[in-house]
Amino acid sequence: MCIPNAEVKTIYRNTILEWFRKRIEKQNFRDLYRAMEDGDAESFYHGFLAGILSQSQDYLVKSNRESGNGRSDICVRSPSLRGKAFVLELKVSNSIHDLEADAEKVGPAAGI
Fold first, then answer.
1. Quick one: pLDDT at residue 103?
2. Where are the beta strands (DSSP E) in the chain?
3. Phi, psi of 74 (to 5 degrees)
4. pLDDT in tens, 83-103
5. What is the rounded CA–CA span in Å between residue 9 and residue 32?
6. CA–CA separation, 112 vs 103, rounded Å?
7. Residue-range domain boundaries for the chain
8. How far apart are the C-alpha atoms of 71 and 73, rounded to whole Å?
9. pLDDT value of residue 110
């Protein structure tokens, strides 16, 4: 079996890529919807941010993965070894006045 021409090949490729894209999008947001339903604001924000960041074709997004001495909340990195990487550690504060102090606190995820 072979694909008869470039036009049919493009149709097959686009159809399969679109199917995968839709499948991945639906899976990425399941935890986000669950957190909204349960009223879990911290998980809701984490899921929302991970979902938004995962839509980029230029970066790979990992959430709550073991790395080094602990787990980072979200890791965003280029597929290239020479590309950029970002590690996001999310914190919760009870008040806007406590934001900086809470951000300085070392939690169990930091592994220190």
1. 82
2. 60-67, 70-77, 85-88
3. -140, 135
4. 999 988 887 788 889 888 888
5. 36
6. 15
7. 6-105
8. 6
9. 46
The alpha carbon of 31 is separated from its chain's Cα centroid by a whole number of angstroms, namely: 11
- Measured CA to CA, the distance from residue 106 to residue 102 in angstroms comes to 9
Query: Which H or E run contains 106?
Result: none
Nearest CA to 59 out of 89, 85, 28, 22 is that of: 85
Whose tokens are 């991970």? That residue is: 50
CA 75 to chain centre: 7
The mean pLDDT of the chain is 77
List, for the chain, all residue ranges whose pLDDT scores fall below the cut of 50: 109-112
Classified as helix, coil or strand, 58 is coil
CA atoms 93, 97, 100, 105: torsion sign: negative
In contact, 68 and 95? CB cutoff 8 Å: no
Residue 103: burial class (beta carbons within 10 Å; 0-12, 13-18, 19+):
exposed
Q: Is 110:89 a contact under the CB 8 Å cutoff?
A: yes
- The sign of the torsion formed by the CA atoms of 55, 60, 65, 69 equals negative
